[in-house]
């Protein structure tokens, strides 16, 4: 009888008075009982009534906040594209860095343009931040680690430094790698900006 209470509860219906839903109902037993009770197998979930209610609340809140909704794929695609555009930086700044570094990541040498982003050395604080000397062309994952101060560039040697927390990962290969030079000397990354970034790497 507790199995029946479980199936009723899974379907969002009141369970039998005085008989708590069983916590262990076999996968084969559940659909048989549902059929006998005239319940559609589609109404059953792996979440109990209260948990299902919480999940529904979270889904409603997520949709209201603009988070992913599987129903609105077009809108979600637009949000993803907008995020990519923001992540790449201002179009003119990115283009200038693509030109300066010959379309290659300054740390890894990756030449897949769609994977490259305009990284600010000192955080963006207005249009003046978009000077090529305050930027590096970086592969998306490397850009993220640079922004998290897990990768840095020595302002004197222009060699890459890798945080100890990354030394057990494939990123250890970047340790001491020479930063690529831009096509013209006047476009070289600012030592002052690199020193500012390096000072924020607390390792």
Description:
The protein is mainly α and 203 residues long. It is built from seven helices and four strands. It has a two-stranded antiparallel sheet with strand order 1-2. A two-stranded antiparallel ribbon has the order 3-4.
Order of SSEs:
HHHHHEEHEEH
Query: How would you write the strand order of the largest sheet?
Result: 1-2
Helix content: 25-40%
Largest sheet: 2 strands, antiparallel
Low-confidence stretches: 45-49
| Amount of beta strand | 5-15%
Shape summary: elongated
Provide the gyration radius in Å: 27 Å
Number of strands: 4
Helix/strand-derived class?
mainly alpha
Ends distance: 61 Å
* Mean residue pLDDT: 78
Instruction: Give the total of domains.
Output: 2
Question: Tally the helices: what do you get?
Answer: 7
């Amino acid at each position: 009888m507790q199995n029946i209470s479980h199936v009723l509860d899974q379907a969002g219906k009141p369970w039998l008075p005085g008989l708590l839903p069983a916590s262990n109902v076999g996968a084969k037993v559940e659909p048989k009982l549902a059929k006998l009770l005239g319940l559609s197998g589609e109404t059953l979930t792996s979440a109990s009534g209260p948990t299902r209610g919480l999940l529904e609340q979270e889904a409603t809140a997520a949709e209201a906040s603009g988070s992913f909704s599987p129903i609105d794929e077009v809108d979600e695609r637009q949000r993803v594209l907008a995020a990519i555009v923001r992540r790449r930086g201002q179009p003119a700044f990115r283009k200038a860095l693509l030109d300066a570094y010959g379309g290659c990541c300054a740390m890894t040498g990756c030449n897949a343009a769609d994977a490259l982003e305009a990284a600010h050395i000192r955080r963006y604080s207005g249009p003046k931040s978009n000077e090529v000397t305050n930027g590096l062309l970086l592969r998306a994952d490397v850009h993220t680690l640079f922004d998290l101060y897990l990768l840095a560039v020595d302002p004197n040697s222009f060699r890459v430094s890798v945080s100890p927390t990354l030394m057990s990962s494939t990123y250890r290969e970047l340790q001491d790698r020479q930063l690529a030079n831009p096509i013209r000397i006047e476009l070289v990354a600012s030592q002052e900006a690199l020193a500012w970034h390096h000072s924020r790497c607390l390792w």
